[in-house]
Design a protein that fits this description.
TIM Barrel; 2 domains; 8-stranded parallel β-barrel; 8 strands; flavin adenine dinucleotide binding; tRNA binding; tRNA-dihydrouridine20 synthase activity; tRNA-dihydrouridine(20/20a) synthase; DusA
Length: 337
């Protein structure tokens, strides 16, 4: 079990929510979070969604273990049974997570079959019961990530009443993906692109519930967008852009948290990741190529980046030391310079 660092105060965690990286299935595992923490010391990081079933019946350390340097870090849970969620929230707190988040936004059919994710928005009282059970079980904040509507339901009153009901159960932070979730007819990928973004709905929630914190998510790709939303809202959550163009994150601490400028280079981050990959291989037998996939966007937009990605993606090199692979990957970068 991880030995957690002292958890941040409510004020420092609220500050960390100014900018966060979204929970993304198959992406934001502990290796991805290690990489992201090299780029930003301040940003709040989230796990992938972990289902209550996986924790009740599976390998708890595999799902919950993380490194101290990942703080501040939040655990996202998927489930719809209050008692199960309370038990899993206690596990998350015991393992040292700084926040427990309930997923009410995932539209996948697999998640719907489990009766959780976005379909829970149709049952706000059940969500409130889940939140109440978790709030009563743990001392760390319990937050909810949700959409602004489901299917063709676009009335503002739908999401307003959802937030109102859930907040009465003790939730004070709502992370709002500013799109509807279409539960039939669209894939999870299409659900991230096709339903139109309606940022004004999130801003209206803040006006109607000024005592609550609202973090906006969906389609955020530039620092200008982040600055614009932070004028009105309490935080911004970036997703795919942070993953595919991670060097953007290197500017966040100074730009959005007022931290001193750091001397940081792509090469230094890559070298730190190479050493991390070697350490994971020695300690756990983890192949470096399963970790390197998270940093393939590091040189995006620079000459030689495509060939650099190809080297780090070459499974024929998986028997080589990561530092050797890094040296090979830098040859095309040097040639293109």
């Amino acid at each position: 079990m991880t030995v957690a660092l002292p958890q941040p105060s409510p004020d420092s965690l609220r500050r960390a929510r100014r900018l966060s990286v979204a929970p993304m299935m198959d992406w934001t595992d502990r290796h991805c979070r290690h990489f992201h923490r090299l780029l930003s010391r301040e940003t709040l990081l989230y796990t992938e969604m972990v289902t209550t079933g996986a924790l009740l019946h599976g390998d708890v350390p595999r799902h919950l273990d993380f490194a101290d340097e990942e703080h501040p870090v939040a655990l996202q849970l998927g489930g719809s049974e209050p008692d199960d969620l309370a038990h899993c929230a206690r596990l998350g707190e015991r393992w040292g997570y700084d926040e427990i988040n309930l997923n009410c936004g995932c539209p996948s059919e697999r998640v719907q079959r489990g009766a959780f994710g976005a379909c829970l928005m149709a049952e706000p009282q059940l969500v409130a019961d889940c939140v109440k059970a978790m709030v009563d079980a743990v001392a760390v904040p319990v937050t909810v990530k949700h959409r602004i509507g489901i299917d063709r339901e676009e009335r503002y009153g739908f999401v307003r009443d959802f937030v109102g009901t859930v907040s009465e159960a003790g939730c004070r932070v709502f992370i709002v993906h500013a799109r509807n979730a279409w539960l039939k007819g669209l894939s999870p990928k299409e659900n991230r692109d096709i339903p139109p973004l309606r940022y004004e709905t999130v801003r209206q929630l803040k006006r109607d519930f000024p005592h609550l914190d609202f973090v906006i998510n969906g389609g955020i790709t530039t620092s200008g967008q982040v600055e614009n939303e932070l004028r009105v809202l309490d935080g911004v959550m970036a997703g795919r852009e942070a993953y595919h163009n991670p060097w953007w994150m290197a500017s966040w601490d100074q730009t959005f948290f007022g931290a001193p400028e750091r001397e940081l280079s792509r090469e230094a981050v890559e070298a730190a990741m190479a050493d991390y990959m070697a350490g994971q291989a020695r300690a756990h037998g983890t192949p470096w190529n399963t970790i390197a996939r998270h940093m393939l966007g590091l040189y995006n937009g620079l000459p030689g980046a495509r060939r650099w990605r190809q080297v780090w993606s070459d499974h024929r090199l998986k028997g080589r030391d990561p530092r050797e692979v890094m040296a090979l990957a830098h040859q095309p970068l040097a040639q293109a310079a």
